[in-house]
Design goal:
Blueprint: H1 13-25, E1 28-29, H2 30-37, H3 41-53, E2 57-60, H4 63-66, E3 77-80, E4 86-92, E5 96-102, E6 108-115, H5 122-140, E7 147-154, H6 171-175, H7 179-182, E8 189-194, H8 195-206, E9 215-219, E10 225-230, E11 233-234, H9 260-273, H10 294-302, H11 306-330, E12 334-338, H12 346-355, E13 366-369, H13 376-405
Parallel strand pairs: 4-7, 7-8, 9-12, 12-13
Antiparallel strand pairs: 1-3, 2-3, 4-5, 5-6, 9-10, 10-11
Length: about 400
Amino acid sequence: MAEVSTDLGTGRASVGAVLDFAWTAGEFTATEAMAGTSLTRSTAIDAIDTLVGADVLHELPNARAAGTYRSGRPSRRFVLAPDLGVVIGVDAGDTHLAVTVADPLDRTLVHHRVEFAPSQSAEERRATILDRLSDALVEAEVTREQVLALCVGVAAPVNRDGISPPHPEGFWERTNPGLAEALHDWAPVVQIKNDAQLAAVAEGAEGAAIGCRDYVALLASERFGGGVVVDGHVLHGAHGGVGEGVVFDHIVGVGSAFGLRYAVQDQVRAAVDSGEIAPDSTVGRLVEADRIDPRLVLTLAASGDPDAALVTSRVGATVARIVGVLGSMYDPARVIVCGAVAESIEPVLTAARRILPEELHLPAPEILASTLGAEVVSRGAVATARRAAREHAVPRLAEERLRASA
């Protein structure tokens, strides 16, 4: 990550306080800024005028000019400049790529999602990511110079320098193909993060973990991986490997880090092979396909199909074992199952909730389905980029403009 100072310079703490206040204030007056920052009126006004002069705040028409003036002296009104720049959030998953260009506050400008070809090499994957980033900027009608912060989520552990450790089969090197180096000059702040950790950020910011200080966001569609939050902090580890799903390869009753898509498929095929599900039944006929759509099985279970219910009960036992391990290791209050499969996962979670208390000695965490869908990592990447813009990039931009005008 490109390191930048959050300090606006000696003697400018008041400017930093007003800038921080402006991020969440919307339109505000000097009186509101004074109350929100505990600055004196003259100090707040001086700081506001400094930021207006640096074109970081914009002054809006006063009440008289806006046609709402009634009596007395109209208040000056201000707002964070809407043209400070943009942030980019990227979800570079195993089989998909999502790129989002957004403003620093709350508006999405461009969002694209495409599939990765499974045969792509690391070099081809890196080129695809760079091409899609460039395409998204063109569509958003912004340049790289306007990018304040960039955050990429990858399906691999990532250390604090954005680098993934070697994987025995080269998987992590492919899913994070040297992105820290390839993207280092794209923005003042560039962060490469583990995708499950970004899912945890999204759930805490706008999902099922709002207000919760201890939870795990369990990415579960393609591969299992947990974004772990303890005492309000996202856990990382020396190599970014906290919550890495390889542990489930060694857990009896789970046996693999492959996610629910494969767990559902394997249980359907096993039940048909054993004769528990008739080959000519609605669920049995699904084995004729190369890949079984788990959402179809889950939808059938929700509608009362007994064969689908058998499958979901067995997958629920797997989920209970996974949550039991996470519960014993991290003692979360909630485990939130995330990813595209979450929208139809409730039959599995119902079964898992019945079994879970037997899997651990601590009080069982609440198991919830995420409401953020397939874009949970994208949302976490954008939220992380926005935070970096607020805490690092925009303060530095303000400092540069102030120095240039001095």
